[in-house]
């Protein structure tokens, strides 16, 4: 018997949710502290997903609460167009201390979707600004997720995200995804699959490389099923894009801020793109905020132009919002003081062993991991996604753990403060639920 939630579930149309199914069995979270959520019936739930890849420093961080509260008190809002305030400039300056070399400019947004669309717009505007007006084509990747704006769904490669929206950006092609059956149960980055980057040359040959503005990929695809980049694959993409003078954009909305053991996957993998998109961990999930990190070369092309402001006529009412910026600064303080990105790297081996201990459970088809990201892919039932949902549901109600399911892949991305003991608890909870769902 499911305890009744403390509020009516009538009017909130929940995003990405089977609303009718949810209302029949509302899963309500009412409080959070450290590694733990609390259910509305008081049960503690181990957070195996950092909310939604957001709370890398864990929940309820007092320093963030304080910074947000002080900033609202000092100045709650200021217009971001033709008017500045210190927190946004300070945050931008602090952030570029963590980006790969040469990415020293920050355009603030409010979400990952806005970051993706902003990066695509900067790419198109940059090509114009440097006189390459014909470079209008964009290239994404199958199973890629770049949020829900029209740019993001067009360049992204998720069928369900597009099906109901027939109007999309023209001139977009997709690389093949890199999830190969022969790489199943790879520990960390798979050895197989770097050759798939060469498909970019085929697409370029088809349309003429001189017509392509940018390639956008997640270094590690999250929503498409946690797809770890094959060793050498991103290096190859970088080589080809450089050869043809095409921009490379990494969507690091989930890999940013320590998730894979460095500030960004780009740093960890030693591949420097021309732009990086971010959100989520930027404020530890406490206040909505996104960002695009842009290379000096791109930025300079705009600054040289005669009418710099209208060459990228773009922005949001809440770009660099002072309260979000305060949350971002306080989050960075925690990440730096507690060395959390390094902590993720140091826990990687323990995490990997713990996850791969599930290999012989029934219906386990693949296990993937990198940094503090993990995925257990299950064999589909008759109906794709049904087994994944059963495990997800069982985890929440019976094993007291929050995991995420993308069809039949259970994804894990705990806060980077997780202890070895909590890793064991999380994996034991998942084991119990996989067995129950078998
Ligand atoms: C890689 C990636 N890009 C973009 C987004 C969209 O972010 P938002 O939901 O904040 O718009 C997400 C969300 O999960 C994501 O994983």
TrEMBL record:
Do you know which CDD domains this protein is assigned to?
OAT_like
Keyword annotations for this protein, in alphabetical order, are: Aminotransferase, Pyridoxal phosphate, Transferase
InterPro entries, per database record: Aminotrans_3, Aminotrans_3_PPA_site, PyrdxlP-dep_Trfase, PyrdxlP-dep_Trfase_major, PyrdxlP-dep_Trfase_small
Cofactor entry? pyridoxal 5'-phosphate
The record's GO molecular-function terms, alphabetically, read: adenosylmethionine-8-amino-7-oxononanoate transaminase activity; pyridoxal phosphate binding
One of the GO BP terms on file = biotin biosynthetic process
Q: Reply yes or no: does the keyword Ion transport apply.
A: no
Q: What are the transmembrane regions?
A: none
Q: Record's Gene3D superfamilies?
A: Aspartate Aminotransferase, domain 1, Type I PLP-dependent aspartate aminotransferase-like (Major domain)
One Pfam family this sequence matches: Aminotran_3
Report the family membership: Belongs to the class-III pyridoxal-phosphate-dependent aminotransferase family.
Question: Could you tell me what this protein is called?
Answer: Aspartate aminotransferase family protein
Species of provenance: Natronospirillum operosum
